[in-house]
Amino acid sequence: MFTIPLLLEFPKSYWIWKYRSWLLQQAIDLLPRPVARRIWEEELGLVSKMLTKDRRNFHAWGYRRKVVATLESAALDGSSLVEYEFEYTTKMINVDLSNFSAWHSRSNLIPRLLEERGADDGARQKFLEDELDLVREALNVGPEDQSLWFYHHFLVQNMTESDGRSKIAPNLPQEQKAAYLKREIEDIKDLLEDYDDIMWIYKALLDYTRALPRVEGRALNDEETDDLKTWMAKVRQLDPMRNGRWNDLEKECGLA
């Protein structure tokens, strides 16, 4: 197809991806279902190759989600590909820890993955522990990487916040949530021994230390308040351009 050379030259052109999507829809509308499905499966293979060339191409990641959703649909006699796609994110993360799109896709797949597995409370807790271990190991290698903190924050917030979103371990007892959160805080503090100039570390400590009293149903203690003041000062030093944001955060922490 003539668009393939164009994609190789312009892999982030929205309109090329859009045109291919339209062509594929014609296959569904005009061709026998088995033939159309084979064409869509080949397209998934093409997207995989494109993401091998440019692992962080968010246009290709978005297009991949559309292709997968169509392959799963009744229009192509589809079935779930959530396990396959979850493994794909693992593969892409193992190749490049900084692949924000892979981490983002992984976070979106998790609720459906656990539901389709019929995961009970024990399996869900084990899954949460495994994901925390995965991203913690990655942070030990690259604590300056914002994409890793995005996923870590997703896991912690999923565990601690009552925001109406689907939870990985919805029946996790409060004391267990607090234990996990304390462990994450201590592990992040350990990062400061080797990396004391990375803003994301301090931002995580500010967020998680404020979350812990909420989980435990208490107010901040004096030690936590002192820590917050220290970390807030460091964040201001490392990122002075966002002084307004830090002023707001200081008020949220009750430090102003």
Can you tell me about this structure?
This is Geranylgeranyl transferase type-2 subunit alpha. The chain is mainly alpha-helical and 256 residues long. Helices cover 75% and strands 0% of the residues. The chain is built from twelve helices and no strands.
Could you outline the blueprint of secondary structure elements for this entry?
Elements: H1 3-9, H2 14-30, H3 33-53, H4 58-72, H5 82-95, H6 100-117, H7 121-141, H8 146-160, H9 174-191, H10 199-216, H11 222-238, H12 243-252
Keywords: Prenyltransferase, Repeat, Transferase
Family: Belongs to the protein prenyltransferase subunit alpha family.
Enzyme class: transferase
- Percentage of residues in DSSP E strands: under 5%
Looking at the chains present, what oligomeric state does this protein adopt?
single chain
Order of helices and strands: HHHHHHHHHHHH
Number of strands: 0
Shape designation: elongated
Largest sheet at a glance? none
Q: Which residues sit in consecutive blocks of at least 5 with pLDDT less than 50?
A: none
Alpha-beta classification: mainly alpha
Radius of gyration: 22 Å
What is the count of helical runs?
A: 12
Please report the distance between the alpha carbons of the first and last residues: 61 Å
Mean pLDDT: 93
Helix % is over 70%
Keywords: Prenyltransferase, Repeat, Transferase
GO cellular component, one term: Rab-protein geranylgeranyltransferase complex
Function: Catalyzes the transfer of a geranyl-geranyl moiety from geranyl-geranyl pyrophosphate to cysteines occuring in specific C-terminal amino acid sequences.
Pfam family, one: PPTA
